[in-house]
Design brief:
By secondary structure, this protein is mainly β. It has 1 helix and 20 strands. Helix content is 2%, strand content 66%.
Length: 422
């Protein structure tokens, strides 16, 4: 449905029925459950000379037939926009992400171990042209992190200065300084801090490839526990190999927090064609800062008949205070076969190996499944999904096996939005 020459609006609704033979993901005394879910939502996308925007929101009412968990509403939102108020002079950036994060990452992600969280970041960028190749970019940001429980809500005030040098039409070098003051609503239970990042950036944008390299340092000045500093390094490369395939790699060493990780899952208003969103670490609703070194590689291919998506990653996560240090390694593979355009069959699997460093425990979580998607007509589809998830652990109280079957009936006004059960 077109609302303007540049914007597209889509909406949809769906019913999901899911059976689990171990809804609490427990090692013993497994309890089965049938879950009924109704989802409604909408999405908007625009890519024009003045505005790039991606907006997606959905609401789900979830009913547990045997009342193992409380019935109720769940929400999710993914919104980002780039508004060119005065093209090449003044832009406004807005990003908002609403989802759920873990209360305790050492336990399974059951509904009673999830916390609602919303992260907002917005502000202007002013471009001051200094000749044909040099530009000074000054930015201001306001951010807010809020959680449905705990005293973790905070406000964030940021500023940045960037000196950009355009070597040619494809390549830009820049010197960047970013500062952010984080202030918690509850300053007794939480520690305010100032973050400063200084780094150089090399960026190359081509029709079929994108390359970006950041090298610098981060300094964190906390009110009570003092200073922490470390290196900042990020490398992103993506390459369109053919008209239907893309590959890429990410290497990084940086300081993050729970809010920054959630914000990183927001969809860019100007996404790279063919590149799937990067995976993010599972984080706990905590006020602690952690350093994460990670490497990730992906390959994505899709034509009218076959689809293949593969991803592998490794993460070294080191918290400043919380005893949650760990190494994570894993990957995911999805293979889709759709010969007729009406019935798509997807076989998928994933594996995650977690080695905790602050205490003795290793977890191995695996999943395997098959999904059938049948398009009844242009707007209506139905799916049948069966999967098995199992976790082996050196802590036998954390082991479990869960078998699930999911049926859905979905209506979407266009492919821009399809209801998804989260």
């Amino acid at each position: 449905m077109q609302v303007s020459c540049a914007g597209e609006l889509a909406y949809g609704l769906g019913y999901f029925g899911e059976y689990s033979d171990n809804i609490r993901l427990s090692p013993t005394n497994q309890q089965s459950e049938w879950i009924n879910s109704v989802i409604v939502g909408a999405a908007y996308r625009e890519n024009g000379p003045e505005l790039d925007a991606h907006l997606l929101a959905q609401a789900e009412y979830r009913d547990y037939k045997n009342d193992t968990y409380n019935d109720g509403l769940l929400y999710s939102a993914d919104a980002s926009l780039l508004w060119r108020i005065s093209p090449q002079r003044l832009n406004w950036v807005f990003v908002d992400r609403y989802n759920q994060v873990m209360r305790d990452i050492t336990h399974p992600g059951t509904p009673d171990n999830l916390v609602n969280a919303n992260v907002l970041n917005t502000g202007p960028d002013l471009y001051i042209r200094l000749g044909r190749v040099n530009t000074l970019v000054l930015g201001l940001r306001y951010g807010n992190d809020s959680y449905s429980e705990g005293d973790l809500d905070s406000n964030r005030y940021g500023a940045s200065a960037r000196w950009q040098y355009a070597a040619n039409a494809e390549t830009t070098y820049s010197l960047n300084y970013e500062a952010q003051q984080v202030k918690y609503n509850n300053e007794i239970l939480n520690e305010n801090y100032m973050r400063q990042d200084l780094f150089i950036r090399a960026e190359k944008l081509q029709a079929r490839a994108r390359f970006s390299l950041d090298l610098g340092a981060t300094r964190l000045d906390r009110d009570r526990t003092g200073e922490t500093s470390g290196s900042l390094a990020r490398l992103e490369w993506s390459q369109r190999l053919t008209s239907v395939s893309t590959a890429g790699i990410l290497l990084a060493s940086e300081y993050l927090d729970a809010g920054a990780v959630l914000l990183s899952t927001a969809t860019s208003p100007t996404p790279i064609p063919g590149a799937p969103p990067s995976s993010s670490a599972t984080v706990e609703a905590t006020n602690d800062i952690f350093n994460m070194k990670h490497v990730e590689a992906y390959y994505n291919s899709s034509d009218s008949i076959f689809g293949l998506s593969a991803r592998a990653f490794y993460r070294d996560i080191d918290y400043e205070i919380a005893p949650l240090d760990r190494h994570e390694a894993g990957g995911r593979l999805d293979v889709t076969f759709n010969p007729s355009g009406l019935l798509a069959t997807t076989v998928y699997g994933s594996h995650l190996d977690i080695q905790y460093q602050s205490f003795t425990r290793d977890d191995r979580v695996s999943e395997a499944g098959i999904r059938f998607l049948y398009r009844i007509n242009r707007n209506l589809s139905t799916t049948l999904d069966g999967r098995k998830t199992w976790r082996y652990s050196t802590d036998t109280l954390q082991e479990y096996t869960d078998n699930r079957v999911l049926f859905s009936l979905l209506y979407s006004s266009s492919p821009l939005f399809t209801p998804v059960r989260r």
